[in-house]
Specification:
With 461 residues, the chain is an all-alpha fold. The protein has a single domain, classed as A middle domain of Talin 1 (Up-down Bundle), CATH 1.20.1420.30. It has 17 helices and five strands. Helix 7 runs antiparallel to helix 8. The termini are far apart.
């Protein structure tokens, strides 16, 4: 096991090395030379790299880093609650999305009051809503379908065969009920965000506060019973505790650095390639860039599902949706205000208000799907087809390839209504399951804080 595990780790690190060299030569050394006051010229080999080469090198780095991140999270489950390990994995995996969105929010502050500043604010919202809808429309739906139909799915305890057309389901860990309730609260708040014409300090306080409360609750949980791991995590979990924790921190730090530095050029490279074939820039920023920045997370989840750890995979997806739907939205106004030099609302136009509403509506529908702790093939296909049809129709409208008699804004409102109607209908049908989740979550929260108070009192004694 030792030799095979070291070989796997070595292969993952090797995938990142071309980008490490590229990043050091093109980004780190010029900064160091400037600080030291010496001359430096980027070698022609790196200065003249084609867009396709940059996409390939940075993309391979993201792939390698994703495996390192997944191994680190699995290994960490031995020492911290699994939900917390997955939350850390989720934050690191979507860190590039934070970086891209923060850049647009920063530019909106720097160029406030100008056309460029207004456009940057709209792009920040477009990129954020695109990332969130991709996470559900492709992530949740695609991973559910992959889980059921991949080779060897019969060996996965999370897959249940049901009678009927497309009725097979993937069951979800009931412990994820806490995440579902917090996600539902964030979704309800998101419907209100456009009413003030922008993301403001109240949105930041509620959404960031919600995520902080979630982390405090899961941190108070117990370390889960030992689960049988194989491969690299099994090897690393045999290390002495101090060495094991150091290894996990190193894996998190290295993979996080690789993902953070590589995904932006990867996303921008894809944008440029798309523009070269005539895809509108705004469309690329809303859909292609987020798709690239979400890739580490999707790779991690595919890895977990392929190991028949579908439960952990879905937990990671749901945790990622929660932190994007809270921290990502909430911190944009902070970045915007820092760039502005004072507090200011991150404003956006009517079209982006509709983008937020359709994203919240999709989230509402997706939560209704999971409220009974399973997702069927039929439900996954509805999620996927609704997402794809809206994106394709809007793209064709932008390209003037079709005319359906309504504007892009009105199209978003139509899909928002569809998501809400289906979602509310599901909640009504599954009202007993929803009530059960709410009762269980209330008990979890009460137990977490009462345990903390008891521990504090015993410490004082």
């Amino acid at each position: 096991m030792r030799r095979q595990s070291l070989r796997m780790i070595g292969m993952a690190v090797a995938l990142t090395l071309p980008w490490v060299v590229t990043w050091i030569v093109t980004s780190v050394l010029p900064v160091l030379a400037s600080l030291l006051g010496v001359g430096y010229e980027v070698p022609a080999l790196f200065a003249d790299m084609s867009t396709l080469t940059i996409v390939a090198v940075s993309g391979l780095s993201v792939l390698g880093a994703s495996f390192l991140l997944a191994w680190g999270a699995e290994t960490a489950e031995k020492d911290v609650p699994r939900a917390f390990a997955i939350a850390v994995l989720a934050v690191l995996a979507v860190a590039p999305e934070y970086a891209v969105d923060a850049l647009y929010a920063w530019n909106a502050g720097v160029y406030a009051g100008t056309e460029r500043g207004i456009e940057a604010g709209n792009l920040a919202v477009a990129n954020m809503t695109g990332a969130n809808r991709i996470l559900i429309g492709i992530g949740w739906a695609g991973i559910a379908l992959f889980t059921v139909y991949r080779a060897g799915s019969s060996a996965d305890p999370a897959v249940e065969e049901r009678s009927g057309v497309l009725a097979d389901v993937v069951t979800i860990d009931r412990e994820i009920g806490l995440d579902i309730v917090f996600l539902l609260a964030a979704t309800g708040w998101a419907f209100l965000v456009p009413l003030n014409g922008g993301i403001d300090i109240l949105d930041m306080a509620f959404l960031v506060g919600l995520y902080v409360a979630y982390i405090l609750i899961i941190l108070r949980g117990d370390v889960d019973p030992a689960e049988e791991h194989v491969g690299v995590p099994a090897y690393l979990q045999r290390f002495p505790k101090r060495r094991r924790i150091s290894t996990v921190l190193l894996l998190f730090a290295y993979s996080g650095l690789m993902i953070f530095t590589a995904v932006e050029p990867f996303a921008h490279g894809l944008e440029e390639l798309g523009q070269n074939i005539g895809v509108p820039s705004f469309f690329m920023i809303q859909w292609i860039a987020p798709l690239a920045s979400e890739s580490p997370e999707l790779i991690v989840v595919l890895y977990l599902v392929n190991k028949a750890r579908s439960t952990a995979g879905f937990n990671a997806l749901i945790s990622s949706k929660l932190n994007q739907w809270t921290l990502l939205i909430g911190t944009l106004v902070v970045v915007h205000s820092l760039a502005l030099g004072r507090y200011g609302v991150l404003a956006f136009d009517q079209k982006q208000a509709a983008e937020i509403w359709i994203t919240a509506a999709q989230s509402l529908f997706a939560i209704a799907v999971l409220v009974n702790f399973e997702i069927s093939v039929r439900e996954a296909l509805v999620l996927l087809l609704l997402f794809l049809s809206q994106v394709v129709i809007e793209f064709l409208m932008i390209r003037d390839a079709i005319a359906i008699g309504i504007s892009s804004y009105e199209l978003l409102l139509v899909y928002t209504a569809i998501y809400i109607v289906i979602g509310v209908a599901l909640f009504v049908l599954r009202r007993h399951a929803l009530a059960g989740i709410l009762r269980r979550t209330t008990g979890t929260i009460s137990e977490a804080f009462s345990t903390g108070e008891s521990q504090a009192r015993s410490g004082d004694d």
